[in-house]
């Protein structure tokens, strides 16, 4: 069994603690990620997903419970926070809003440069990261960041994080707003990073197709707690869970549930279009 | 068609100016008419120019060449820009970027206050717009505790209060979860049924299926257009353009490859279910008729 690289135990967090507006966002949450695992966190707006992932790189320190990432204890006030943040790359929702340099190459180079790496290595990392997100280094490095589309900016923000070579990549809605091809490419790249470089990936998503394709394991959050945990097949195959926690379904699963309502014996856990087609082929007279 | 278009886009080109001798062309000789009551979807990959095109429809951007006319008014005519904006309202991608007030009804009232609508009429318009988007019970709430879908509905209500003829949605659902997206699609469908002209820019192929017409952009030009069914029949071409077909179409294609009589020409989930029904119970149908 793999040792966990991320270990969250009994984590609680209350916003505005001690005031009349106190709001408990996390309530004894426990989760783990093994090294090289790819994990999705899903759940309705306000279920605590973002609060949870902001603990992973120490933006929030645990009020109660423990968060240990790659041996670093986030609740320890003396923990080397710079080291932690280099190991855990957290990419916020709409990271494109955070580009600040005039030129694409400079923006991606900012992090590695601040790490004090030699210039040649900074350049090498920028090239590597741009290639990884599907941006041509030669063509794009001197482009002004303002004259880019939303999707291109997203890739640049992601490249900027990858250039720091984190051990754990935490993504909040990584492909929202990307076109279908860019989304596919980005998902494939994330999967490659996950499988070939054994980068641990934890992502929050509303897009169930994306969860179905990418995640090995899914945590469902509701009201600040982990409501359930399982493989995508277990989660999407269980309509009670989906209904209770207001989880959307991949399109393919929607079709399969509609067929099941009409009395057909299909496995709604078949969430990929090919698998759904195979389920349908079993039903029809050829 | 006897109708005059609400929006006429005539042979426009647009470039971002980087510096004195470098320009990045985004739109190249685009022409497009939007007719009253039409539901038009614009798709294209990131950087294809679709957002830039949509920002021309109410004069947020003006073309470098060619012209955009809203009810015959040139969007470059700054004196009449408020008329253009009151006819064509726009909803943007990020819910948080378009809420200005601390109470929902004040937010909806914002545009009305700016054009000096009388208080009684203002109240009527706010009531009506919040009712259309199904947010009446939230009128005294602060908007920052609402979900993304609810915020976008408030943004749409603010636009409806201005009594526009056309609503342009620039990826208005892409930051929402599937429930939020359904909320917005329901509102759009209702507005369309009531005769509102809708232009939507989206990456979600399943959203495109409910439009009357689809325009596909690539490298700043319109490269394909037609009904959703026509456009989605060009699966290979769409993939070249970094786009996709709805999962329903893809599933239909897989099944069709094994079973030739199963239609490939399906774009909606319910159509797949019906097609399965048609294939699985021929005996029952035969005995039933």
Automatic annotation (TrEMBL), chain A:
<keyword id="KW-1003">Cell membrane</keyword>
<dbReference type="GO" id="GO:0043190">
    <property type="term" value="C:ATP-binding cassette (ABC) transporter complex"/>
</dbReference>
<dbReference type="InterPro" id="IPR017871">
    <property type="entry name" value="ABC_transporter-like_CS"/>
</dbReference>
<protein>
    <recommendedName>
        <fullName>Energy-coupling factor transporter ATP-binding protein EcfA2</fullName>
        <ecNumber>7.-.-.-</ecNumber>
    </recommendedName>
</protein>
<comment type="similarity">
    <text>Belongs to the ABC transporter superfamily. Energy-coupling factor EcfA family.</text>
</comment>
<keyword id="KW-0547">Nucleotide-binding</keyword>
<dbReference type="GO" id="GO:0016887">
    <property type="term" value="F:ATP hydrolysis activity"/>
</dbReference>
<keyword id="KW-0813">Transport</keyword>
<dbReference type="InterPro" id="IPR003439">
    <property type="entry name" value="ABC_transporter-like_ATP-bd"/>
</dbReference>
<keyword id="KW-1278">Translocase</keyword>
<dbReference type="GO" id="GO:0015087">
    <property type="term" value="F:cobalt ion transmembrane transporter activity"/>
</dbReference>
<dbReference type="InterPro" id="IPR015856">
    <property type="entry name" value="ABC_transpr_CbiO/EcfA_su"/>
</dbReference>
<dbReference type="InterPro" id="IPR030946">
    <property type="entry name" value="EcfA2"/>
</dbReference>
<dbReference type="InterPro" id="IPR003593">
    <property type="entry name" value="AAA+_ATPase"/>
</dbReference>
<dbReference type="InterPro" id="IPR050095">
    <property type="entry name" value="ECF_ABC_transporter_ATP-bd"/>
</dbReference>
<keyword id="KW-0472">Membrane</keyword>
<dbReference type="Pfam" id="PF00005">
    <property type="entry name" value="ABC_tran"/>
</dbReference>
<dbReference type="GO" id="GO:0005524">
    <property type="term" value="F:ATP binding"/>
</dbReference>
<comment type="subunit">
    <text>Forms a stable energy-coupling factor (ECF) transporter complex composed of 2 membrane-embedded substrate-binding proteins (S component), 2 ATP-binding proteins (A component) and 2 transmembrane proteins (T component).</text>
</comment>
<dbReference type="InterPro" id="IPR027417">
    <property type="entry name" value="P-loop_NTPase"/>
</dbReference>
<comment type="function">
    <text>ATP-binding (A) component of a common energy-coupling factor (ECF) ABC-transporter complex.</text>
</comment>
<dbReference type="GO" id="GO:0042626">
    <property type="term" value="F:ATPase-coupled transmembrane transporter activity"/>
</dbReference>
Automatic annotation (TrEMBL), chain B:
<dbReference type="Pfam" id="PF00005">
    <property type="entry name" value="ABC_tran"/>
</dbReference>
<dbReference type="InterPro" id="IPR015856">
    <property type="entry name" value="ABC_transpr_CbiO/EcfA_su"/>
</dbReference>
<dbReference type="GO" id="GO:0016887">
    <property type="term" value="F:ATP hydrolysis activity"/>
</dbReference>
<dbReference type="InterPro" id="IPR017871">
    <property type="entry name" value="ABC_transporter-like_CS"/>
</dbReference>
<dbReference type="InterPro" id="IPR030947">
    <property type="entry name" value="EcfA_1"/>
</dbReference>
<dbReference type="GO" id="GO:0015087">
    <property type="term" value="F:cobalt ion transmembrane transporter activity"/>
</dbReference>
<keyword id="KW-0547">Nucleotide-binding</keyword>
<feature type="domain" description="ABC transporter">
    <location>
        <begin position="7"/>
        <end position="244"/>
    </location>
</feature>
<keyword id="KW-0067">ATP-binding</keyword>
<keyword id="KW-1278">Translocase</keyword>
<dbReference type="InterPro" id="IPR050095">
    <property type="entry name" value="ECF_ABC_transporter_ATP-bd"/>
</dbReference>
<keyword id="KW-0813">Transport</keyword>
<keyword id="KW-0472">Membrane</keyword>
<dbReference type="GO" id="GO:0005524">
    <property type="term" value="F:ATP binding"/>
</dbReference>
<comment type="similarity">
    <text>Belongs to the ABC transporter superfamily.</text>
</comment>
<protein>
    <submittedName>
        <fullName>Energy-coupling factor transporter ATPase</fullName>
    </submittedName>
</protein>
<dbReference type="GO" id="GO:0043190">
    <property type="term" value="C:ATP-binding cassette (ABC) transporter complex"/>
</dbReference>
<dbReference type="GO" id="GO:0042626">
    <property type="term" value="F:ATPase-coupled transmembrane transporter activity"/>
</dbReference>
<dbReference type="InterPro" id="IPR027417">
    <property type="entry name" value="P-loop_NTPase"/>
</dbReference>
<keyword id="KW-1003">Cell membrane</keyword>
<dbReference type="InterPro" id="IPR003593">
    <property type="entry name" value="AAA+_ATPase"/>
</dbReference>
<dbReference type="InterPro" id="IPR003439">
    <property type="entry name" value="ABC_transporter-like_ATP-bd"/>
</dbReference>
């Amino acid at each position: 069994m793999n040792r966990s690289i991320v270990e969250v135990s009994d984590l609680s967090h209350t916003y505005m603690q001690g005031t009349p507006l106190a709001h408990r966002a996390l309530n004894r949450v426990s989760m783990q990620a093994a090294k090289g695992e790819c994990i999705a966190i899903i759940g309705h707006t306000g279920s605590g997903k973002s609060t949870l992932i902001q603990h992973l790189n120490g933006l929030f320190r645990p009020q109660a419970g423990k968060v240990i990432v790659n041996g670093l204890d986030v609740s320890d006030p003396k923990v080397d926070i710079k080291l932690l943040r280099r190991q855990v790359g957290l990419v916020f929702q709409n990271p494109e809003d955070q580009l600040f340099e005039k030129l694409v190459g400079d923006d991606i180079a900012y992090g590695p440069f601040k790490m004090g790496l030699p210039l040649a290595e900074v350049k090498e990392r920028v090239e590597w990261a741009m290639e990884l997100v599907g941006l041509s280094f030669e063509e794009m490095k001197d482009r002004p960041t303002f004259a880019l589309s939303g999707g291109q900016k997203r890739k640049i923000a992601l490249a900027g994080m990858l250039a720091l070579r984190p051990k754990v990549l935490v993504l909040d809605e990584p492909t929202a707003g990307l076109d279908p091809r860019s989304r596919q490419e980005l998902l494939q790249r994330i999967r490659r990073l996950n499988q070939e470089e054994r980068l641990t990936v934890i992502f929050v998503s509303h897009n169930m197709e994306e969860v179905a394709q990418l995640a090995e394991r899914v945590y469902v959050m509701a009201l600040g707690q982990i409501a359930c945990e399982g493989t995508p097949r277990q989660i999407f195959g269980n309509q009670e869970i989906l209904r209770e926690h207001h989880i959307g379904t991949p399109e393919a699963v929607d079709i399969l549930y509609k067929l099941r309502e009409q009395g057909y014996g299909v496995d709604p856990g078949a969430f990929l279009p090919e698998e759904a087609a195979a389920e349908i082929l079993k039903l029809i007279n050829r | 068609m006897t109708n005059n278009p609400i929006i006429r886009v005539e042979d426009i080109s647009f470039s971002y100016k980087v510096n004195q001798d470098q320009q990045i062309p985004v739109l190249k000789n685009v022409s497009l008419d939007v007719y009253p009551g039409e539901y038009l979807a614009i798709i294209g990959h990131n950087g294809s120019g679709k957002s830039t095109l949509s920002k021309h429809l109410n004069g947020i951007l003006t073309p470098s060449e060619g012209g955009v006319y809203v009810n015959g008014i040139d969007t470059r005519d700054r004196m009449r820009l408020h008329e253009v904006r009151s006819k064509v309202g726009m909803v943007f991608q990020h819910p948080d970027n378009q809420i200005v007030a601390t109470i929902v009804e004040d937010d909806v009232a914002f545009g009305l206050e700016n054009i000096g609508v009388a208080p009684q009429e203002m109240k009527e318009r706010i009531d009506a717009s919040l009712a259309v988007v199904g947010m009446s019970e939230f009128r005294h709430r602060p908007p920052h505790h609402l979900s993304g879908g609810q915020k976008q509905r408030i943004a749409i209500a603010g636009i409806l209060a201005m009594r526009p003829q056309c609503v342009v949605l620039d990826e208005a659902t892409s930051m929402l979860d599937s429930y939020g997206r359904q909320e917005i699609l329901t509102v759009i469908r209702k507005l369309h049924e009531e005769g509102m002209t809708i232009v939507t820019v989206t990456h979600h192929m399943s959203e495109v299926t409910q439009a009357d017409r689809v325009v596909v952009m690539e490298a700043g030009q319109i490269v394909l257009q037609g009904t959703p069914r026509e456009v989605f029949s060009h699966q290979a071409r769409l993939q070249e353009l970094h786009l996709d077909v709805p999962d329903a179409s893809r599933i239909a294609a897989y099944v069709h490859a094994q079973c030739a009589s199963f239609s490939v020409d399906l774009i909606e989930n319910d159509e797949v279910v019906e097609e399965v029904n048609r294939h699985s119970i021929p005996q029952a149908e035969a005995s039933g008729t």
